[in-house]
Design goal:
By secondary structure, the chain is an alpha+beta fold. It is 58% helix and 14% strand. It has 2 domains: 68 residues; 67 residues, SH3 type barrels (Roll). The chain contains 4 helices and 5 strands.
Length: 175
């Protein structure tokens, strides 16, 4: 029975925090509605403010409840910031590749079957395929390089034209 007492105390504190949080949210939402009615604000204008109140009260309640179990707010914030940073980096990379592909179609620095070489690099080959993320270059030995499309805008590029009968525009290839 002595081991049960701390568990019951923690449970009672968590329940008290939840009830007080609900009461605080209800009071704040009613006060906001009252102020909005007095100021003759439309419900559409009040809704974002209502959402902010709900989120803030929920965050405060969650912090207090997790504190009862020994979980610190800074740990949660650090993990959240890390996840957001990783997600931002992934999205940034995807957007960079897709934007570069769109620019390759518009600017047309090369066509399909042209030979391209990056200045100062060993990467050289005939353009054999392009998609939203990569351009495939085939070397004289038959090897293939997959070059990220955003790389074409970061380095100087040497282009050798393919014969006119073999040249295909990037836009036509992507169709």
């Amino acid at each position: 029975m002595t081991h049960l007492t701390p568990i019951l105390q923690t449970g009672a504190l968590v329940l008290l925090i939840l009830v007080l949080g609900l009461l605080a949210m209800s009071f704040l939402l009613r006060a906001l509605d009252f102020a909005g009615t007095r100021a003759k604000m439309p419900a559409l204008v009040l809704q974002p403010m209502r959402n902010v109140v709900k989120i803030l009260v929920a965050l405060i309640v969650m912090t207090l409840v997790l504190g009862q179990f020994g979980i610190e707010l800074m740990s949660i914030l650090t993990a959240t910031v890390a996840l957001v940073a990783i997600g931002f980096f992934a999205v940034w990379s995807l957007v960079s590749h897709v934007t570069a592909t769109v620019l390759l179609v518009i600017v047309k620095p090369f066509n399909m079957n042209d030979t391209v070489k990056f200045a100062g690099e060993e990467v050289k080959g005939k353009v054999v395929d392009i998609n939203l993320f990569y351009t495939s270059l085939e070397t004289e030995t038959g090897d293939r390089f997959q070059v990220p499309n955003n790389l074409f805008f970061q380095n100087a590029l040497h282009r050798s034209f393919a014969p006119a009968d073999q040249r295909v525009g990037i836009a036509e290839h992507l169709k």
